[in-house]
Design goal:
heterotrimer; A mainly alpha; B alpha+beta; C mainly alpha; A: mainly alpha; MetI-like fold; 2 domains; 75% helix; 0% strand; globular; B: alpha+beta; Rossmann fold; OB fold (Dihydrolipoamide Acetyltransferase, E2P); six-stranded mixed beta sheet; five-stranded antiparallel beta sheet; 26% helix; 34% strand; transmembrane (chain A); Sulph_transpt2 (chain A); transport (chain A); membrane (chain A); CysT_permease (chain A)
Chain lengths: 277, 356, 291
């Protein structure tokens, strides 16, 4: 018998591994990693004290509060209404359902600036909707919430909808045959299946809302300390050629969204693990 | 084309898929790789096809090393487990694919391709389905398209991964007869992977039983069935009754049961297990020497054969026996009867070489 | 008898919402209330804004509308937007196919990390997406001096706008293709290769037809976002009228100058594109489901 032949090279049968991976790495390195690393490199030019000064300036802190609270409110509104819309679209039939279903994606397709000016003119004190309220909506945090709700709506609907479609009728029938009322079936059988999707939808909408700029600048009024969102602070600093200041705030935003994404992935991982076992 | 597999090993991460596998397949043979899932049978097939590379070892086709050859240079026809038909192509285009993608120099003309494809479709009895898409076919029809597609490139070796796995029982039986006939007509060296012992016994010239990445036994269907070399093979090929006892003075002792095992006299006082096939259990009305008292607890009539479930009276264990209808009528067995059994044929293994 | 029960069964399957038993269906008033809430919400947040755009656009008559969208600045903005889209979308489409191929057809270390990096632009605020290119290519940026010496303009010019748009829309095609190609697996490609096809032929005849609808879907989404991107482009454009103003930036300028009718006229044009996008998207989604 011949001596053992050791095949050192593990050949991949499907071609293009080096080409596609190389291209992908080069592309993301040049267009994502290098640009994003600039944020952190540029902040190095600031001393720690300077950095802290910029990111804890009262105007900046106020903007974090505005951005965070409005994004949270919009996210929660989307959870409630997005889930209802997904439910109605999957479970009930009514005229023009297909068109209405398609319209849910409008916020994805409509340029944010267009959405911004349209919502502003609607909810302004003399607008079609604003005139019916005896308090201001546009140019207050309420206006910001409305713009962010618009932007985030498809995220919740589109993540909940397929899950709802996939819940088999048999599970609900089993629940009903065991004597559960409709509400009990929803709470104990349907909702637990929807919860992960709702959470995903919420987190996507929330993350998008934190960074949103185009639709908000028009409706917010942009009053420092009251309705100024964090992306706008960066914009303002840039217009004053305060690159270091803009970058410092950007670091705060980036770190926040990374932590957010990471914790959401973690929660989902934990939730999935529960279902596997 | 003959295939020689020498000392092939393959690891996926920390999982040893193949461990020092050697196998020689003669030209024109039809060989079954039989084993449970994870036994390495599919990995071996893919290594032969060149879809995976082995870490160690060599593959020779007619004495030529294939290790550095790309799958497309190996002249191998591969039928995938779930057929892997091109879902956006018609049956005709699927079968024609291997010819159409040839470099211009060696590509047959359109007419030649058409004739060849139609000939193959006639062979697999699908000539009226050439314009259908895979989704419009039944499982058995898809299987035949996959086979025709593999045959279109005139392979020297045909490799089939669980060819009948996804089909229902009746179609499966039909197709495997048909595969056998096809092989007898064309004599292409063929290897197929299966976890179904009946399929392997029915179709193959030789069976390679695999377990945990290693070859347990190679032999003709009759050979592996009647002379299993290991407990694993015994257990995997057909039903088996176990007598877990100990060896003493050339006898296997288990409760009131004692039987001569002359070939294992060396080991005394050792733990040992006797393996007996259900049809090797003889049922007696009277107590002859070497028999064990049992009580009939169940009778299943399955057409020409009768399965009898027996409960040993000396210990809390069940046995299964198979009788022909004729034997059954002669014995006039009824549930609750007290009878005696005796193994006609028994194979003893010492637990050290246990794998189950 | 046989037939009538069959017909009944078909009928009940068709509108099972109506014939379901009470235990499997909410009470009627609950159904109506939920439907009302959903439709009212969509009316206030989606339909009314859309209607208001067109209504405001034509408020001062067709003449003003036509004048607004044929104004040289508007035409320049449209041309610039189309140029940016024509560069950015194909780049990200090629990238998306390459990335999906690498990430779904092979196993390698660091795959999950690469997936995360591909997704990263979704997690970054558009304003920051613009800022990073200022930091790279602006006058105070990493390559600022070198670019100035060689008289190359990137930010406040077309290349900067393209870069920012590419960054923001980078994941769209890849994100559509990766899950699709993951479920399709690699067996059809392996079959093709074992039948003698080379890599390019395998991609062209086997992979591409299988992913074409997913690819188109990703392209449509990528295209919509590239046309409408505002924040990132706003940072790098420099707002030079007739030169570096894209359509959304042009709308902003008109709006801030209180030329509402003109602003909404251009906005209506973009809304039409958005509606076409939705229709194409719907068709593509439907096609890919039936394919």
């Amino acid at each position: 018998m011949s001596s053992l032949t050791v095949n050192k090279k593990t050949r991949r049968i499907i071609p293009g591994f080096h080409l596609s991976l190389g291209y992908t790495m080069l592309y993301v390195s040049l267009l994502v990693l290098l640009p994003l690393s600039m944020i952190f490199i540029h902040t190095m030019s600031l001393s720690w004290a300077e950095f802290i000064d910029i990111v804890t300036a009262p105007r900046a802190v106020a903007s974090y509060k505005v951005s965070f609270s409005t994004a949270l409110a919009a996210g929660l509104l989307n959870v409630i209404f997005g889930t209802i819309i997904a439910w109605v679209l999957v479970r009930y039939s009514f005229p023009f359902k297909r068109i209405i279903d398609g319209l849910v994606d409008l916020p994805f397709a409509l340029p944010t600036a267009v959405a911004g000016i349209a919502l502003t003119s609607l909810y302004a004190p003399n607008g079609w909707i604003g005139q019916f309220f005896n308090f201001k909506i546009a140019f207050t945090p309420l206006g910001i919430i409305i713009a962010l709700t618009f932007i985030g709506l498809p995220f919740v609907v589109r993540t909940v909808q397929p899950v709802l479609q996939n819940i088999s009728a048999e599970v609900e029938e089993a629940s009903a045959s065991l004597g559960a009322t409709r509400l009990q079936t929803f709470r104990k059988v349907i909702f637990p299946e929807l919860a992960p999707a709702i959470l995903t939808g919420f987190s996507l909408a929330f993350a998008r809302a934190l960074g949103e700029y185009g639709s908000v600048v028009f409706i917010a009024g942009n009053m420092p300390m009251k309705t100024e969102i964090t992306p706008l602070i960066i914009m303002t600093k840039l217009e004053q050629y305060d690159y270091a200041g803009a970058t410092a705030i950007a670091v705060v935003m980036l770190v926040t969204s990374f932590i957010l994404l990471f914790s959401i992935n973690l929660i989902q991982w934990l939730a999935n693990r529960r279902f596997v076992h | 084309m003959s295939i020689q597999i020498n000392n092939v090993s393959k690891k996926f991460g920390s999982f040893q898929a193949l461990e020092d596998v050697s196998l020689h397949i003669q030209s024109g043979e039809l060989v079954a790789l039989l084993g449970p899932s994870g036994s390495g049978k599919t990995s071996l097939l893919r290594v032969i096809a060149g879809l995976e590379t082995s870490d160690v070892g060599e593959i020779l086709f007619d004495g030529q090393s294939m290790i550095d050859r790309h799958p497309k240079e190996r002249n191998v026809g591969f039928v995938f487990q779930h057929y892997a038909l091109f879902r956006h192509m018609t049956v005709f285009d699927n079968v024609a694919y291997g010819l159409k993608v040839r470099p211009r120099k060696t590509r047959p003309s359109k007419l030649e391709i058409k004739n060849k494809v139609m000939e193959l479709l006639r062979l697999v009895k699908l000539e009226n389905f050439s314009d259908r898409y895979p989704t419009q076919l039944s499982g058995g029809q898809r299987q035949r398209v996959a086979l025709a597609r593999a045959l279109a490139v005139e392979p020297k070796v045909l490799l089939l991964d669980e060819p009948f796995g996804a089909l229902d029982a009746k179609v499966r039986k039909e197709l495997r007869r048909w595969l056998r006939k096809l092989h007898d007509d064309f004599h292409i060296t063929s290897i197929f992977v299966t976890h179904d012992q009946e399929e392997a016994l029915d179709v193959a010239d030789r069976i390679v039983v695999m377990n945990n990445g290693k070859i347990e036994q190679i032999g003709s269907p009759d050979d592996v069935y009647t002379n299993p070399k290991s407990p694993f093979v015994y257990d995997f090929l057909g039903n088996v009754n176990l007598f877990k006892g100990r060896l003493h003075n050339g006898k296997l002792l288990h409760g009131e049961f004692a039987i001569d095992v002359p070939d294992l006299q060396v080991h005394t006082e050792d733990q040992a297990v006797g393996y007996v096939r259900p049809h090797d259990i003889q049922i007696e009305r009277t107590n002859v020497s070497g028999t064990v008292p049992v009580k009939v607890s169940h009778i299943h009539l399955l057409g020409p054969i009768v399965q009898v479930e027996l409960r040993r009276e000396d210990m809390d264990e069940f046995l299964e026996a198979e009788l022909t209808k004729e034997q059954f009528t002669n014995l006039q067995l009824k549930v609750g009867d007290h009878v005696f059994i005796k193994p006609k044929q028994l194979k003893v293994f010492i637990p050290e070489d246990f794998s189950i | 008898m046989e037939q009538s029960t069959f017909i009944q069964q078909v009928a009940s399957e068709k509108n099972n919402a109506v014939t379901k038993s009470a235990a499997l269906q909410e009470p009627r008033f609950v159904r109506y209330t939920l439907t009302f809430i959903a439709l009212a919400f969509l009316a206030f947040f989606i339909v009314l804004p859309l209607v208001s755009i067109f209504s405001t656009a034509f408020q001062k008559g067709v003449g003003v509308y036509v004048a607004a969208i044929t104004h040289p600045d508007a035409m320049a903005a449209i041309k610039l937007t189309l140029t940016v889209v024509a560069i950015a979308v194909p780049l990200n489409a090629i990238f998306g196919v390459m990335a999906a191929w690498a990430l779904t057809k092979f196993n390698f270390k660091g795959k999950n990390l690469l997936l995360t990096i591909v997704d990263l632009p979704f997690a970054v605020s558009p304003v920051i997406a613009g800022l990073v290119f200022i930091l790279l290519f602006g006058s105070q940026g990493l390559f600022g001096d070198w670019l100035f010496e060689h008289d190359i303009k990137i930010v406040f010019a077309l290349p900067g706008i393209v870069l920012a748009t590419v960054f923001v829309t980078l994941p769209f095609v890849a994100r559509e293709l990766i899950p699709l190609m993951q479920t399709q697996g690699t067996s059809e490609e392996e079959a093709s290769i074992s039948l003698g096809a080379n890599g390019f032929k395998t991609f062209w005849y086997v992979t591409l037809p299988n992913i074409k609808w997913g690819l188109l879907y990703g392209l449509v989404l990528c295209n919509a976002r590239a046309i409408g991107e505002f924040g990132a482009v706003s940072v790098v454009s420099g707002h030079i009228r007739g030169m570096t103003n894209t359509m959304p930036l042009h709308i902003e300028i008109l709006y801030n100058e209180y030329q509402f009718a003109a602003a909404f006229a251009v906005a209506s044009l973009m809304s039409v594109i958005a509606i076409i996008t939705l229709i194409v998207k719907d068709i593509v989604a439907w096609k890919s489901k039936s394919a």
